[in-house]
């Protein structure tokens, strides 16, 4: 991605020469002649560097540095000052500028200083990312064939910048995978911004995404940036995008296509360069066919789909997941018997990996400091027979799934749409399972 520069100087000839020079060097350049113009531009766009003249018609450039650090925290700020203003230049450094040059300015010297400042900013961001990663335990997705394929696709997605649609039942780890893709992408130094679309509707959802200005609606007492704005140069993750209402879908479609948006109550067009990741537990293709999801938005986000298989289809991953969670809690040496592992493998896990983690945490509380045993997993012992027998495990899983589906269809009084929603699967999947 090209680096962007904001040039703030009141002399048209200086702005012209700097814009022309750095434009030829491959930078994206914008300019401002006053502090007011600089504030407006910096509030609506993200810049990698800012060349700031000290003396401006409406004030001193040094007074703008604190505001720039709030709106463009990672930008390299270089102050250009007169020969007699060295003490003010030192004050500019104290307030957050990266460097300063005295007039007259050599374009070659300025470019060298700019490159060094940009490199230092990049190193700072990389160090922050490495420190953040070092504090966390790397996620474990599984060693099954299905999950190895998921990891291969995720690695490919991380190398690109195309939209990714993560599909799968609730609790399969779509959010964890989205975060992994971001942390291994070229945007890892930028923010990872997440929103769950299922909890918000209408203006509340639009306000979260686009932001709003003071007075845009009754409770809007302050200007507020939206998540699209915050995600600039990073990743925007929309969890359960299938629950987004149609009106907001139409607004968001334009954002994806043009990377521009407006805050609620504001006429000014803003830009945000973000990478889009989405997740859903619904069949969006079927929803689009039924008119519950926009066809055009579906095609825009369905560029690189990755499907997370449910845990019941990969019981061989359960031992590794158990070890991973125990290590995450600092209990790598905890004793888990073969009987417990067989019990966990025989259970259907309707809540998938999230349920496994919660059940394991509950068992540790029940066991206190004793070794984990089947008695510490109440509610999972519904499997009848020898849990150590793999063949009977599979037959038990099939029977449990059949009984559970039949009970939900009966509870829904034969309404397949209602039963599918209660099961967390599409209607097509429900019919396929009933036929099987």
List descriptors.
Helicase, Ruva Protein, domain 3; 3 domains; alpha/beta; Rossmann fold; 47% helix; single chain; 5-stranded parallel β-sheet
Can you tell me about this structure?
There is one protein chain. With 436 residues, this protein is of the alpha/beta class. It has 3 domains: 4-132, 3-Layer(aba) Sandwich (Rossmann fold), CATH 3.40.50.2300; 145-307, 3-Layer(aba) Sandwich (Rossmann fold); 312-435, Helicase, Ruva Protein, domain 3 (Orthogonal Bundle), CATH 1.10.8.60. It has 18 helices and 16 strands. It has helices at 12-24, 35-44, 65-71, 86-95, 107-134, 145-159, 174-183, 202-210, 227-230, 246-258, 284-289, 295-301, 318-328, 338-346, 352-367, 390-411, 416-423, 427-435; strands at residues 4-8, 28-32, 49-53, 55-56, 59-60, 76-81, 99-102, 164-167, 192-196, 211-212, 224-225, 235-239, 260-261, 270-271, 275-280, 304-307. The strands form 5 sheets. The chain has a 5-stranded parallel β-sheet with strand order 2-1-3-6-7, sandwiched between helices. It has a 5-stranded parallel β-sheet with strand order 9-12-15-8-16. Strand 4 (55-56) and strand 5 form a beta hairpin. It is elongated and about 85 Å long. The protein starts with a strand and ends with a helix. Mean pLDDT is 85; it is low at 383-396.
Question: Strands, helices and their partners?
Answer:
Layout: E1 4-8, H1 12-24, E2 28-32, H2 35-44, E3 49-53, E4 55-56, E5 59-60, H3 65-71, E6 76-81, H4 86-95, E7 99-102, H5 107-134, H6 145-159, E8 164-167, H7 174-183, E9 192-196, H8 202-210, E10 211-212, E11 224-225, H9 227-230, E12 235-239, H10 246-258, E13 260-261, E14 270-271, E15 275-280, H11 284-289, H12 295-301, E16 304-307, H13 318-328, H14 338-346, H15 352-367, H16 390-411, H17 416-423, H18 427-435
Parallel strand pairs: 1-2, 1-3, 3-6, 6-7, 8-15, 8-16, 9-12, 12-15
Antiparallel strand pairs: 4-5, 10-11, 13-14
Helix pairs in contact: 6-7, 13-15, 16-17, 17-18
